[in-house]
C-alpha cells in the first residue's frame, strides 16, 4: 500500500491535519506500519502539488487538508486496481536465506531455525491480539498478518527439507590476480 493512497482514503472521511492522519492511519492498520509525521507532511505536500488534496485555512495552529475531486478519482482508481505481486516489497527473509546458502561459513540451518523461532513468537503474539476486541479493519489486517506468518512457517519447513537434499555446486577456482601497488 502506498502512503499516498492511504492518506487519500483517510481524507475521504473528512478534512484532517497531519497528526490526525497519522493517528487514523495507525488506528486503521493496528500500528503495523508506523508512519513518521515527516512522511505524512511530505506526502501531503506532494498530494497538494498534484491537486489530489487541498489545504484549508489554519484552525488553532493546525492546517487541515481535504481530498479534491481529482483525489477522489485517484482513490477510486486505486481501489479498483488489484495489487500486483511484483508491486509488493522485497521479501528480506527469502533474500537473506538465498545469500546464506551461498555465503561461506554460514550455518544455513541455524538461520532457518532462528527465523522460525522469531516467526513463531510473532504468530503467537498475533494470535493473542486476536482474542482482544477490535474493529473490523484492524481484525482484517491482523488476519492477514497471521496468514502471512503461517505461510512463512510453511515456507521455512520447505526450505529446511530442501536444504537436506541440497548439494552445493563446486566453486570455480579463481586465478591469482596481481594487485598493482
TrEMBL record:
Top-level lineage group: Bacteria
Database matches in InterPro entries: Tscrpt_reg_PadR_C, Tscrpt_reg_PadR_N, WH-like_DNA-bd_sf, WH_DNA-bd_sf
Alphabetical list of Pfam families matching this protein: PadR, Vir_act_alpha_C
Domain Transcription regulator PadR C-terminal: 90-163
Domain Transcription regulator PadR N-terminal: 7-77
Full protein name: PadR family transcriptional regulator
Amino acid at each position: 500500500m502506498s502512503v499516498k493512497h492511504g492518506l487519500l482514503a483517510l481524507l475521504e472521511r473528512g478534512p484532517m491535519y497531519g497528526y490526525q492522519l497519522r493517528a487514523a492511519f495507525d488506528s486503521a492498520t493496528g500500528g503495523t506500519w508506523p508512519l513518521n509525521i515527516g512522511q505524512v507532511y511530505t506526502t501531503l505536500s506532494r498530494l497538494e502539488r498534484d491537486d489530489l488534496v487541498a489545504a484549508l485555512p489554519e484552525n488553532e495552529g493546525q492546517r487541515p487538508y481535504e481530498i479534491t475531486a481529482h483525489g477522489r478519482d485517484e482513490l477510486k482508481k486505486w481501489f479498483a486496481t488489484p495489487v500486483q505481486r511484483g508491486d509488493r516489497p522485497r521479501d528480506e527473509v527469502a533474500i537473506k536465506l538465498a545469500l546464506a546458502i551461498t555465503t561461506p561459513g554460514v550455518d544455513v540451518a541455524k538461520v532457518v531455525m532462528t527465523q522460525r523461532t522469531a516467526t513463531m513468537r510473532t504468530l503467537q503474539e498475533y494470535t493473542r491480539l486476536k482474542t482482544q476486541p477490535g474493529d473490523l479493519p484492524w481484525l482484517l489486517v491482523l488476519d492477514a498478518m497471521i496468514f502471512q506468518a503461517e505461510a512463512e512457517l510453511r515456507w521455512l519447513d520447505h526450505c529446511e527439507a530442501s536444504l537436506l537434499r541440497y548439494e552445493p555446486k563446486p566453486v570455480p577456482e579463481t586465478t591469482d590476480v596481481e594487485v598493482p601497488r
